[in-house]
């Protein structure tokens, strides 16, 4: 590790991150996230802007009772107003009332903002910065100064931009942070500027605060550290205004695993994916499957040649060992898959297959045929396990569908949708046909309820299966109502969830296929030994 001078991680998810579209945390959420950030090893946690809204006020009140092991909570605000002494500025007083050990304030670097936004003079702006920092410092706070629009200001007038940093340092700031506020800087130019600033400002410590408007937020942050900055401000999963802030989830492993920089959270990189997903859950946002390092697809291999090479020499297609960030290698199945890919995927599922066997050749032909018809096994592992078990292990169903019928009724006066499903099945060992009827708000729900009623006596574990998600995609667009409908269905029980698929011109039939595979998977999971007839037509 490069331990000569450690890097400090400053998380502003709870403040700057909440300015992102669709991102919102309650005060209780923010308290829980602060505890999790502390446990992960984050150095500074910016909690919000005291006085700006009731939620942040509630957070800072509750934060006083937090017993953090490492992190320091920061309140955020601005310098005092023009022609107002810091000691008389009510906004700075509110920052002190938050009772946080750290206060971060921002001030103007760009003369354009000084004269046109603040409507004051360059000299008064310098006074506002120094006076504000000194007031907070004298009150016993660690003060971090964020130089807003620093790089824009530096382009316009580098001498004045440096003067603003010196004013903050003269007031006693522990850090001066260079902000690429509009996210428009280029990497090499920014890195050259940071080198000059760190040399000019030494021994005052320099930090980075970048945005992702050009898609370079992570690159700019990392380049800044390489140039001498020793604090990185960012948000988890890149939350933030416009297209987001620099993403700490990508910055931290790049600094630690790629460049060898030391920081407190580096010891927990193997929990990074778990931490990232947890923040998404708090925000009630879907996780980005394509996210570097932690995304579900980050170490997924689909092409047969790639999958084969990744199995033999993982680092030839994986830039790090997935486990170092809490992720894992995944083999995806499609009509591009070869025997090696299928064998690797089967091994993940506990089935040992010879990739060069005749059975494998016939299975690959069947797989390609089904994918061509619209079945998608890449995202439906449960359906793929059923397919493997049927082909290689002789799995047969304990039930046989005789028929089903669905009827949908719209009651306009009551604004109600009612669907009814009638299902007839034959269960192994029984001569009589079972018929069940169920209702729901939609035909798929009614079909699901009717099927589980039919299975209830012989397979009581199926009662615990719930339908969690249901996705429909139209294939072969341009064929109108004759297009193939692809269904992906997520089901689960008290222990886990799984995805199944179906495909047919009839959306109810495609849904039945996905439902049927969900039942099959549950029975396989519970280690039933199937025998008997097949269950209908389709992807058998």
Number of helices: 17
Number of strands: 16
Describe the oligomeric state of these chains in a short phrase: single chain
Work out the radius of gyration. 30 Å
The geometry reads as: elongated
- β-sheet strand percentage: 15-25%
> Strand count, sense and closure of the main sheet?
8 strands, parallel, barrel
Domain count? 3
In which range does the helix fraction lie?
A: 25-40%
Counting helices, strands and paired strands, the structural category is alpha/beta
Description:
By secondary structure, this protein is α/β, with parallel strands linked by helices. It has 3 domains: 8-283, Aldolase class I (TIM Barrel); 301-373, no CATH class; 399-525, Double Stranded RNA Binding Domain (2-Layer Sandwich), CATH 3.30.160.270. Helices cover 38% and strands 20% of the residues. It contains 17 helices and 16 strands. It has an 8-stranded parallel barrel with strand order 1-2-3-4-5-6-7-8, surrounded by 8 helices. The protein is elongated.
């Amino acid at each position: 590790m490069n331990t000569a001078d450690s890097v400090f991680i400053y998380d502003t998810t709870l403040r700057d991150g909440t300015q992102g579209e669709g991102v919102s945390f309650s005060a209780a959420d923010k308290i829980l996230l602060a505890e999790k950030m502390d446990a992960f090893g984050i150095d500074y946690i910016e909690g919000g802007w005291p006085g700006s809204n009731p939620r942040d006020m509630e957070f800072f009140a509750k934060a006083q009772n937090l017993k953090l092991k490492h992190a320091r909570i920061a309140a955020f605000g601005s310098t005092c107003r023009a022609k107002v002494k810091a000691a008389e500025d009510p906004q700075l007083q509110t920052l002190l009332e938050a009772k946080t050990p750290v206060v971060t304030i921002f001030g103007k670097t760009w003369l354009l903002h000084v004269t046109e936004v603040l409507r004051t003079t360059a000299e008064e702006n310098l006074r506002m910065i120094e006076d504000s920092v000194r007031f907070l410092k004298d009150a016993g706070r660690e003060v971090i100064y964020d130089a807003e629009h620093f790089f824009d200001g530096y382009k316009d007038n580098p001498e004045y931009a440096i003067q603003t940093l010196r004013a903050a340092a003269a007031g006693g700031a522990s850090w001066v942070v260079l902000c690429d506020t509009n996210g428009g800087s280029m990497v090499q130019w920014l890195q050259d500027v940071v080198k000059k600033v760190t040399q000019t400002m030494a021994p005052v410590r320099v930090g980075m605060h970048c945005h992702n408007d050009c898609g370079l937020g992570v690159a700019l942050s990392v380049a800044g550290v390489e140039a001498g900055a020793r604090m990185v401000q960012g948000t988890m999963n890149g939350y933030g205004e416009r297209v987001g802030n620099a993403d700490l989830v990508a910055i931290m492993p790049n600094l630690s695993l790629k460049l060898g920089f030391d920081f407190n959270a580096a010891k927990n990189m193997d929990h990074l994916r778990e931490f990232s997903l947890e923040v998404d859950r708090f925000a009630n946002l879907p996780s980005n499957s394509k996210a570097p390092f932690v995304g579900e697809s980050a170490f997924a291999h689909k092409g047969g040649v790639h999958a084969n090479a990744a199995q033999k020499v993982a680092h030839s297609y994986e830039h790090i060992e997935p486990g170092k960030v809490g992720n894992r290698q995944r083999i995806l199945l499609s009509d591009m898959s070869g025997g090696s890919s299928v064998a690797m995927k089967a091994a993940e599922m506990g089935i040992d297959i010879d990739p060069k066997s005749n059975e494998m050749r016939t299975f690959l032909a069947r797989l390609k045929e089904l994918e061509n018809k619209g079945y998608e096994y890449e995202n439906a592992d449960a359906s793929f396990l059923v397919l493997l078990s049927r082909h290689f292990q002789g799995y047969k169903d304990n039930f046989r569908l005789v028929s089903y019928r669905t009827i949908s009724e719209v009651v306009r006066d009551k604004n109600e949708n009612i669907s009814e499903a009638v299902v007839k099945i034959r269960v192994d060992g029984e001569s009589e046909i079972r018929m069940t009827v169920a209702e729901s708000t939609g035909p798929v729900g009614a079909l699901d309820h009717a099927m589980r009623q039919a299975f209830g006596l012989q397979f009581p574990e199926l009662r615990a299966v719930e339908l969690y998600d249901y996705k429909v995609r139209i294939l072969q667009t341009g064929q109108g109502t004759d297009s193939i409908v692809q269904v992906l269905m997520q089901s689960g029980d008290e222990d886990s969830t799984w995805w199944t698929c179906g495909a047919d011109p009839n959306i109810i039939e495609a849904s039945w296929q996905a439902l049927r595979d969900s039942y099959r998977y549950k029975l396989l999971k519970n280690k039933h030994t199937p025998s008997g007839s097949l269950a209908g037509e389709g992807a058998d």
